[in-house]
């Protein structure tokens, strides 16, 4: 049985992202996956990595729990809105505090190379935004997707990392939203 961990990075649990996370879960469960959703807003942690890696910051119990869930998962799903070209501060703080050396990666002594400690996992990134997708891809160059895909997940060995974006949200009517929600449920069924 495949183990799926869905991380909702939107701070509002009444958001479209929250509904998309639940929809992916419904689809994955139809494929008999063991599936869990974590809403970052429910976790108790300081999102600021105050001293970088110079001084170790002890992990709060919630972050220790999420690290164990990440290690146990076969497939990771990150759902978040694109705000100001990237993602909410809550999600950035989560990455800073959770994807740490010796957990997600490990630098080799005396080398610029590193070991990818999350190899064998796959991922899906699901984003929402108000800008048209063509503008975000061609003009903005997708910083809020590329940094998570390349700078976090693939850096730590997670591959492949597939992406799905829904936009523009602000002009989408109810029928369009329902189509998007159904599409995410189908992605969950495919476990992709």
Sum this structure up briefly:
This protein is 38% helix and 20% strand.
What do you see in this structure?
This protein has 192 residues and is an alpha/beta fold. It has a single domain (3-190), classed as Rossmann fold (3-Layer(aba) Sandwich). 38% of the residues lie in helices and 20% in strands. It contains 6 helices and 7 strands. It has a 5-stranded parallel β-sheet, with helices on both faces. The longest helix has 17 residues, at 174-190. The chain is globular, with a radius of gyration of 16 Å. It starts with a strand and ends with a helix.
Side by side, the strands of the main sheet go 2-1-3-6-7
CATH superfamily: Flavodoxin domain
Rg of Cα set: 16 Å
Uncertain segments of ≥5 residues (pLDDT<50)?
none
Strand and helix order: EHEHEHEEEHHEH
What is the third-level CATH name, the topology?
Rossmann fold
Structural class by sheet pairing and helices: alpha/beta
**Beta fraction:** 15-25%
Helix content: 25-40%
CATH C-level class is Alpha Beta
CATH architecture title: 3-Layer(aba) Sandwich
- Overall pLDDT confidence: 97
Q: Give the beta-strand count.
A: 7
Distance between the termini: 15 Å
Number of helices: 6
Number of separate domains: 1
Largest sheet: 5 strands, parallel
Q: What's the overall geometry?
A: globular
Topology readout:
Elements: E1 3-8, H1 16-30, E2 34-39, H2 61-72, E3 75-81, H3 89-98, E4 105-107, E5 114-116, E6 122-128, H4 133-138, H5 143-154, E7 161-166, H6 174-190
Parallel strand pairs: 1-2, 1-3, 3-6, 6-7
Antiparallel strand pairs: 4-5
């Amino acid at each position: 049985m495949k183990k799926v961990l869905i991380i909702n990075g939107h701070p509002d649990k009444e958001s479209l992202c929250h509904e998309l996370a639940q929809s992916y879960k419904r689809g994955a469960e139809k494929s008999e996956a063991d599936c869990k959703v974590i809403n970052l807003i429910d976790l108790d942690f300081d999102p600021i990595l105050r001293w970088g890696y110079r001084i170790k910051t002890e992990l709060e119990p919630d972050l220790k729990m999420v690290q164990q869930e990440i290690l146990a998962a076969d497939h990771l799903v990150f759902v978040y809105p694109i705000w100001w070209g990237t993602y909410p501060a809550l999600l950035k703080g989560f990455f800073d505090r959770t994807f740490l050396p010796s957990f997600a990666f490990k630098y080799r002594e005396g080398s610029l190379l590193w070991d990818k400690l999350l190899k064998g996992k796959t991922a899906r990134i699901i984003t929402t935004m108000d800008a048209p997708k063509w503008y975000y891809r061609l003009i903005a160059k997708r910083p809020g997707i590329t940094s998570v895909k390349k700078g976090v997940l693939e850096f730590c060995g997670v591959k492949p990392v597939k992406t799905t974006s829904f936009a523009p949200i602000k002009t989408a009517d109810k029928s369009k939203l329902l189509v998007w929600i159904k599409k995410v449920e189908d992605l969950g069924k495919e476990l992709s």
